Automatic annotation (TrEMBL):
Pfam families: Glyco_hydro_92, Glyco_hydro_92N. GO terms for molecular function: carbohydrate binding; hydrolase activity, acting on glycosyl bonds; peptide-N4-(N-acetyl-beta-glucosaminyl)asparagine amidase activity. Its cofactor is Ca(2+). This is GH92 family glycosyl hydrolase. GO terms for cellular component: cytosol. InterPro entries: 6-hairpin_glycosidase_sf, GH-type_carb-bd, GH92_a_mannosidase_put, GH92_N, Glyco_hydro_92, PNGase. Residues 1-24 form the signal peptide. Gene3D superfamilies: 2.70.98.10, alpha-1,2-mannosidase, alpha-1,2-mannosidases domains, GH92 mannosidase domain.
């Protein structure tokens, strides 16, 4: 195994000097702190390659394996490369995309993915990972089979390649339209030469996204001598030329979800020339600008690296899904002209509604209206808000109605660059659709376990969404809708068994499923989803007092909550969910339904226990190493938890903007918000002094256990006085 080379600095000041201004000596180069190897081992599933924040293009290497740990196309344990693909996923549990794969070669090759046991099979080559360079917006690696050094950078919609060839009479760049990612299968492809230095085409495929269409145009810096469509069913094309020793040949590939003409316009607008260095510098500047939205002060270099890598991971997606003129392909499969907003895709909402989207409301206010408008238009086109939306396709992956909380949250936080009443209608219609178990829920008041798989998980997630919807309805003055969905949000109580103290599956006769063990898990084939009763018993972030009441008293609730972290970490069952990871007792930080639980202690009046557990997770379940995440990155959610929690607060509830206090990790953090700079200061902070003793907001004593979004958004100063005394409660 070889680890990725990281933190390769651009010469100080070069980027801004290129833009015509001098760099101040004290200016921080945040991209230097990003370690792109974090999450490439274990089950992190992160993307490695060249992209810009929230770009359509994620240009990076794709490896031979198509199993679970290669759903991003890359794993630190493997150094095979079948080519460099222009779309990738980051941190997901299912694989797809890898569209328009390009491989530089010399000599004759076989046109196939190939197998590692036959070095001459397919196009693939080993990559020399000892010479690999990866930093935000730039990637390079030598391909040992061909003696070619590959370099990649990108704009939002265009990937730029630079290949350094050996001397060869039979050099070529091959386009592979066959091999996608894991579940993906090409259904129709087209590629044709346009003159002797340009090719265009499209790739249609089905997989996780069941009807994906991507169009492209590519231009060579050097004319090709011949162009051949080859391989089975014409899935490959070879552009051949002669090369001299050390000759650099560049290729730029523009993507469009709409048309070849759209791809051509994207290239003309974003990358008309051939300046590789300037493009890489521009990508670095774009990343630096986004990463600078939070400036932390700390002596802990490891924590700084983890923090800014986490920031980086949260900005791979959602990704652009429109042309430079605003045209896009909708959820109805139709092409839509610019409708006045920027369209996005890759909405992993079951994960990201919990922390990644609440983080976005703070540091990316300029994107929030576009995000919500995208979701509203998805509802218009498919009849419901997105569940897990990918490249214009609804995958219906995961449980509940995860598109509702971020829309409600935006309304409650005062965002208004969209039709708020239409957004409420979209939420209501999504919540009242008689599908995905909602018909049973409306009939019985809960989803019976004998009539629907993962019934507890679906119902409890629907309850969370109902609560968020109710709060938005109240904000917009719709009391009838508020009352209806607030009542529905309590459906979780049907599953609570007071005799065991766990949420359990209940059949249509009102009887709990037997036999029962809270440690049992059967992956995607029981009453829970990627979890067990230990984890799902706490999936009530929207109704803390209601959950406490289930246990009869706060004391009983806290005793049970303590036992979650003290329980044996073993799981029962022959096919337990691999997503139940990052275990402390039966608390599973590696999967999203657990992410709010630590903050229940603060809600229950024992904030020192939140501090203990948050520091434990920050210190032991996040590392500056390839296996540095305790579960899938999940399109930014795992990292967003780290970002918010290390700042000292977390939005435990699904919407509304109360960020509950935990324990700040850094001495100082400056957060750029819509209203100014919100500064978080932790006085006397250390590993021992991790407990909040006192809080002030803008110099005034503050006696709430949370900070509200409106106060963060306005800018100002939140000051924590830290100490080593437990059982100090300032509220």
């Amino acid at each position: 195994m070889n680890s990725i080379t990281t933190k390769i600095s651009i010469l100080a000041g070069v980027a801004l000097l290129a833009a015509g201004c001098a760099q101040a000596p004290e200016e921080v180069h945040y991209t230097d702190y990003v370690n792109t190897s974090i999450g490439t081992g274990g089950h992190g599933h992160v993307f490695v390659g060249a992209n810009v924040p929230f770009g359509l293009v994620q240009l990076g290497p794709t490896s031979i394996p198509q199993s679970w740990d290669w759903v991003s196309g890359y794993h630190e344990s493997d150094s095979t490369v079948i080519g460099f693909s222009h779309t990738h996923l980051s941190g997901t549990g299912i694989g797809d995309l890898f569209d328009v794969t390009v491989m530089p070669v010399t000599g004759e090759v076989s046109y196939a993915r190939g197998t590692e046991d036959d070095p001459q099979s397919g196009l693939w080559s080993y990559a020399d990972r000892s010479k690999e360079v990866s930093r935000p917006g730039y990637y390079s690696v030598p391909l040992t089979r061909y003696g070619i050094n590959a370099e990649l950078t990108s704009t939002a919609r265009v990937g730029l390649h630079r290949y350094t060839f050996p001397a060869s009479d039979n050099a070529a760049i091959v386009f592979d339209l066959e091999n996608g990612g894991c579940w993906d299968k090409a259904t129709e492809v087209h590629i044709e030469a346009v003159g002797n230095n340009r090719v265009s085409g499209w790739r249609y495929s089905e997989g996780w996204a069941n009807d994906q269409k991507i169009f492209f145009t590519a231009e060579f810096s050097k004319p090709f001598d011949s162009f051949e469509i080859t391989g089975e069913n014409g899935m490959y094309a070879r552009a051949s030329f002669k090369s001299t020793e050390g000759e650099q040949v560049m290729l730029k590939v523009a993507l469009s979800p709409v048309s070849i003409e759209g791809a051509e316009a994207n290239m003309k607008a974003e990358l008309p020339g051939w300046d590789f260095e300037a493009t890489a510098k521009a990508a670095d500047i774009a990343w630096n600008k986004e990463l600078s939205k939070i400036n932390i002060k700390t002596a802990d270099e490891q924590a700084r690296e983890i923090f800014y890598t986490a920031m980086y991971h949260t900005m791979v997606a959602p990704s652009l899904f429109c042309d430079v003129n605003g045209d896009y392909r909708g959820a109805d499969g139709k092409m839509h002209k610019n409708e006045g907003f920027t369209n996005y895709t890759t909405f992993s909402l079951w994960d990201t509604y919990r922390a990644a989207m609440p983080l976005m409301t703070i540091i990316h206010p300029e994107k929030m209206n576009d995000m919500v408008n995208t979701m509203i238009h998805i509802w218009k086109q498919q009849g419901k808000l997105p569940v897990w939306h990918l490249m214009g396709c609804e995958t219906d992956c995961m449980v509940g109605n995860p598109g509702i909380p971020p829309v409600a949250d935006a309304i409650l936080k005062g965002y208004d660059g969209f039709d708020r009443n239409l957004a409420l209608q979209a939420m209501k219609e999504s919540a009242l659709r008689p599908d995905r178990g909602q018909d049973l829920r409306m009939k019985y008041g809960y989803i019976p376990c004998n009539l629907f798989n993962e019934s507890v998980a679906y119902d409890m997630e629907y309850a969370i969404a109902d609560w968020a919807l109710a709060q938005a309805a109240k904000e917009l003055g719709d009391e009838e809708t508020y009352n209806h969905f607030l009542e529905r949000s309590r459906s979780y109580k049907n599953f609570f068994d007071p005799s065991t103290g766990f949420m359990r599956g209940k059949d249509d006769k009102g009887k709990f499923r037997t036999p029962f063990s809270p440690f049992a898990s059967t992956h995607r084939a029981d009453d829970y989803c990627e979890g067990n009763a230990w984890q799902y018993t706490w999936l009530v972030p929207h109704d803390f007092q209601g959950l406490v009441d289930c246990f009869g008293s706060k004391e009983a609730f806290l005793k049970k909550l303590d036992s979650l972290f003290e329980a044996d970490s073993d799981l029962e069952g022959g096919n337990t969910s691999p997503d139940i990871s990052g275990l402390i007792g039966q608390y599973a930080h590696g999967n999203e339904p657990s992410h709010h639980i630590l903050y229940f202690y603060t809600m229950a009046g024992q904030p020192w226990k939140t501090a203990d557990r948050v520091r434990e997770v920050l210190a032991h379940l996040y590392h500056d190493a390839p296996d540095g995440l305790s579960g899938n990155e999940d399109v930014g959610q795992m990292s967003a938890w780290y970002i918010l929690s290390s700042l000292g607060f977390y939005q435990a509830e699904p919407a509304g903007g109360r960020y509950w206090f935990g324990t700040p990790l850094f001495d100082k953090a400056e957060i750029k918000t819509a209203g100014g700079i919100f500064t978080v200061i932790a006085e006397n902070n250390s590993e021992e002094n991790r407990y909040i003793q006192k809080v002030t907001l803008n110099g005034q004593e503050y006696n709430k256990p949370y900070i509200e979004f409106k106060d963060i958004n306005a800018g100002g100063e939140l000051r924590f006085t830290m100490g080593n005394e437990k059982e100090v409660c300032w509220y």
